[in-house]
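Q: What does the assembled structure look like for these inputs?
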Amino acid sequence: MDTRTSPYRARIAKTQEALARHGLAALLVPSSDPHLSEYLPEHWQGRQWLSGFTGSMGTLVVARDKAAVFADSRYWVQADAELAGSGIELVKIPTGTATHHVDWLAREAKAGETVAVDGAVLGLAAAQQLRTVLDKAGVALRTDIDLLAEIWPDRPALPAAPVYEHRAPQAPLARAAKLMQLREAMARHGATHHLVSTVDDIAWALNLRGSDVTYNPVFLAHLLVTLGGATLFVGEGKIDAALKAALAADGVALAPYGEAAAALAALPSDARVLLDPKRVTLGLRERIAVPVVEAINPSTLLKSRKSEAEAEHVREAMRQDGAAMCEFYAWFEQALGRERITELTVDEKLSAARAKRPGFVGLSFSTIAGFNANGAMPHYRATPESHAVIEGDGLLLIDSGGQYLGGTTDITRVWPIGQVTDAQRRDYTLVLKGTMALSRTKFPRGTLSPMLDAIARTPLWEQGLEYGHGTGHGVGYFLNVHEGPQTISKALPDAHMAMEPGMITSIEPGLYRPGRWGIRIENLVLNVPAGPLQGAGEFGEFLAFETLTLCPIDTRCIDRTLLRADEIGWLNGYHATVRERLLPLVDGAARDWLLARTEPI
Amino acid sequence: MDTRTSPYRARIAKTQEALARHGLAALLVPSSDPHLSEYLPEHWQGRQWLSGFTGSMGTLVVARDKAAVFADSRYWVQADAELAGSGIELVKIPTGTATHHVDWLAREAKAGETVAVDGAVLGLAAAQQLRTVLDKAGVALRTDIDLLAEIWPDRPALPAAPVYEHRAPQAPLARAAKLMQLREAMARHGATHHLVSTVDDIAWALNLRGSDVTYNPVFLAHLLVTLGGATLFVGEGKIDAALKAALAADGVALAPYGEAAAALAALPSDARVLLDPKRVTLGLRERIAVPVVEAINPSTLLKSRKSEAEAEHVREAMRQDGAAMCEFYAWFEQALGRERITELTVDEKLSAARAKRPGFVGLSFSTIAGFNANGAMPHYRATPESHAVIEGDGLLLIDSGGQYLGGTTDITRVWPIGQVTDAQRRDYTLVLKGTMALSRTKFPRGTLSPMLDAIARTPLWEQGLEYGHGTGHGVGYFLNVHEGPQTISKALPDAHMAMEPGMITSIEPGLYRPGRWGIRIENLVLNVPAGPLQGAGEFGEFLAFETLTLCPIDTRCIDRTLLRADEIGWLNGYHATVRERLLPLVDGAARDWLLARTEPI
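A:
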C-alpha cells in the first residue's frame, strides 16, 4: 500500500486533532463493547476502523504524535501486513499479557495530563488496573467521552436483527422459572436489583436468541432484574408485539437500549445491586450510587449446568451434526483427486451439509480447514485471497461446528490426504492418546477444571512435545461456543471453575509443526455422574465425561504400536457408539463411509 | 478433668482481666511467631498455654465473656479432648479456611471497640485481611501490645541453642557468594536494603544452622542485607567468637535479636527496602518508614534450586538413609512375632539406625508409624499413652526422614503384617500406580507445580478413590522438610511455583480407610533435564523427575493384575537401582533383606 494514501494515516491524524481539541494526551481504543463480548458488532470495531488491523484481539493507543497497536504472537504476521503504511507501530506482546499498553500509556503521558477511554466499553477489572498504573504516574483518566463519535463519520449503526424466542422443547425451563432462580440468588446476596450486561446471560435468562453478532445467537441488551419484575434494555423494533406481550406476561418490561445507564442512576436509595465485576463495564458501574454486591452472575453458573432434558437435545444435535459430517466426508473422499477442492470448498460443502440437518440455525464459529502448513496455525482461516488446494500428500485439519436449536457443536478431526509419513502418524497418535486419556478420566465433583489440563498433555510431554493453547473450553447450549466459567487450561483456577454435573467442555489437545502440519482432535464432553465405583461414595461424588461428539476419528493415521490395549479398546468402543447412533441417519455413500471409518482396529 | 480445676479456665480469666485493664474487647492469639515458621518455639506457644489445645494449627480468641479455639477437621478429636473443662468453645472450621475467627471477632466486638493481636507474630497478609473485616465492622485493631507478657508468669525464654556453620563440601556455595546473589536481586528491584525474617532463608543465605526448634535445623534471627554488608539480629551468646569473626570477614555484623525493629525504624531516608509480604510480620513492616519494594524473598527461589554439587550430596544422603532403612527393616522382619514391637519401637529402632549413618544430624520430622486404623490418620503420632502393638494382620505405614549435612530425607513405605487382604492389595497397588505415574512424568520447564497434581490421582480417581492431602511438598537442603515455593497439590498456583531444574519435591499419594488402614507411598524427586526427546527442543525445555529416595517398595502387597507392563518395568528398574546403590553399604541381615525386597516381580 502506498503510505501516503493509507486511509488509516488520515484517521489517526483526525483522532489526534480531536485529542488536541479536548486537551487529551492519548486515546485508548480497546477491543470490547458494552457487553464484553467475544465478537464485536461493527459499531464497536473502532480499533479496526482507525488502524486497519482486523485481528480479533488487540488494543490501539493514539497519542499526540504517535500511535501503536498491541497484539500477541498469533497476530504479528497479520498486523505487520495490515498496519503497513499507516504509520502505526506494532508492539508485540507475549501471549496472555494484556497490560503492556497500560505501561506504554503511563510512559507517553506526562504527569498532570489526561488520557481518555470510552468507559462504556471498559470492563471494571481493566478499568481498575488502568487507574492504578495511571494514578502512580500522576496521569488522569477520562472515561465519560466517546471520541469515536466525533471522528467516525460513517460509523455503522447498532445491529437491528430481530430477537426471537428459544422455545420448548429445546428450552425446557420456562423464562419465569429462570427469573425465579435469579431472584433466589439475589435474595441470598441481599440484593434488590441484579444488573446483567453479558448477552449470553441475558439470552439464557429470558429464553431469547438473536443474531446481532456472527456465530453467537445473541442480541445486544442489558437486563435489570428486580424481586418482582425485570426491565430489558433493547433496541427498539427488535422485539415484535407478540414477543413483547409474552415477555410482559412474565413480568419483563422493555426499555430503549440506551436508557440502562439512566435507569441505574435513578435507582431508589434503598436499592442494593448484585453485579458481576468481570461482566459489567465501568460506564454502567459508575452510574450506580446505591450499594453494590459483587459476585459472579448467577446465570453464568446456572447455564453452565445443562439439565438432563437439555443434554438429551444436545445428544440429538450431535447425531445430526455427525450425520452432516458423514455426508460431507463421503463426498470429500470420492471427489478428492477428481475435482478441485480447496480449503474454501471444504467450508462451503461442510456448511451446506450441516444446513440441511433439522434444527440447524448457523455455524458456531468460522470453519478452520487447514491443509498441511495451514493446519499448523491454530487460528488459521482460509480466505479467497489466500488458501490451499487439497492435493498431493499430507494432513487436513478441519475444526468446525454448528448452532442447533438443541445445542452447540464444535469438533476437530484430521484426515490423511495421499501418503502420510511415519512422523505424522506418530504425532497424530500422541495427540489422540491425549484426547483419550482426558476423555476417560474420572474425577471428584468440584475439581477445578484447570487441574485436569495436564492429563491430556502427558502423552505429548513424555516425548518433549507441547501445544500452546488450552485443552478445553466450556460450551453453551445453543449459545456461545466459548462459554465458561470452566476451562481446561493452564489458566489460574478460581472457585467458579469447579466441575459440576451437566457442564459441557471441549477436549482438544493438538500438536503443531510450523510450516509442516498441524493436528488437533476435539470432542465435546458432558460432566455426568461416574456411576458405581470401588470407592462407593466413601470418598465423595465422582464425575466422568460422556463423549457427546459423534464422528469417526480417522484410524488410517494411527501408529498402532504407540497405543496400549486399553486405548485401542476405548477407540473401538467409541466407534461402535458412533456407528450405532449415526447409522439410522445416513444412507448411500455416507452410510458406506460411516461403516468404513468405524471399523475396529 | 474436673472442670473446676482446669488451669486453662484460670488462664482465660486472667486474660479477660487484662482485656478489661486495657479496655479491649478481645485478644487474638494466632499460631505463629515473628518468623512465620512451621514449628514454634515454646515462647510463642501462647495459644497452647492459654487453652491447653496442642495441635500444630489453630487460633484462639479470648473475648470478654467467652473464648474459642478455631481448628480444622484434623484436630477435632484432639481439640475436643484437650479443651474439655476449660470452658473454651471449639469452632470446627473447614480445612483450608483460616478466616473464620476473623468473622467471629467482627461479630463479638461492637463498633467502636478495640481488639488486640501481637503484631510481632502477625503475617502481613493475615493482618491486611483482619484489618479489612474489622474496619467494615467499625472495630479498631491494636497490634502494638503483647498481652501474653503480662499474663504468662513462667513464659519460656527464647531458645538459646548455639548456631553453627554449614561448611563445604556439603555447603558448596560460600556465604559471600550467596550474599552477592541477594544483592544482585536487590539491585534489580532498586533496593538498598533487604529484610529477611524467615529462618530457613537466613540459614541458607549465611550457611548457618541451629537447633532452636524441633526438626528444622534453623535458628531465630532477622537479617538485614545492604549493598555493602549485612546485620544479623540474633540472640546474644548463640554465636561464638570464631563464628563471629568468620561472619565479620564476610561483612556480616551481629546485633541483638530484639533490635531488628529499631534498626528498621532508623533506616536513612533514601533507603528502599525489599521484603516479602508473605514472609514478614506486621510488627516489623510497620517500623519501616521508607519506601518498600514487595517481592518474594530472592533466597526462597535460589535455595529451591539445588546445585549439581548439592544434588550429589543429596544422592549420598539418600544412600545412607536407605541403608538405615534396610538395617531397620531387616531387624523388624526377624523380630516381628518374637518380641513385642509397638509403633513407638518402630520410631526408636528406625531413628537409632539413622543415627549411626555418617552425616546424620537429626530427624527431619516426627516419625509417623501407624498400624492399621492408625495408618488411616495422615498426621497420626503414637504416644506413650496411646499406640498400637504390631501384631496380627494388616498394614504398617511408616513415614520418616532424617536431616543429614548433605540433605533432608522424607520417605513413606507400607509393609504387610501377617495376612493382607485383597482389598488392601488393591488399595496399595492403586496408590503405587499414582506414585509411579507422577514419578515418570516429563513436563515443560516452568509448569506450575500444582498443575501436575492430577497425574498422581488419576489411577485412584478411576476407582472413585481420593486422598485429602496434597501430592507433594518442596524439600530443603539440610533445611526444612516442608520448604516451597513449589507444591504439588490443589493449592491455587502462583507464578513462583514454576518447576525449575534442581527443585526437590515429594511425591506421596495415599488412600485412607478410616478405622481400617492407610496407605501412602512417598519418594523425593529432583527436577532434572528430561534428556533427548522426540521434540528435540522445538517445544522448549523439558524436565523429568529423578527419584532420589532409595528404599524398596514392598512388592508382597501388590495386586499384579492391576499393573501394566510399563509400570512393572518401572518398578523393577527402580528396584535394580536401589539394590545397586545400597548394596555396598549394607551387610548381614540388612543385605539379605535388601536382596529379597528388590527382587523383580
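The mean pLDDT of chain B is 95.
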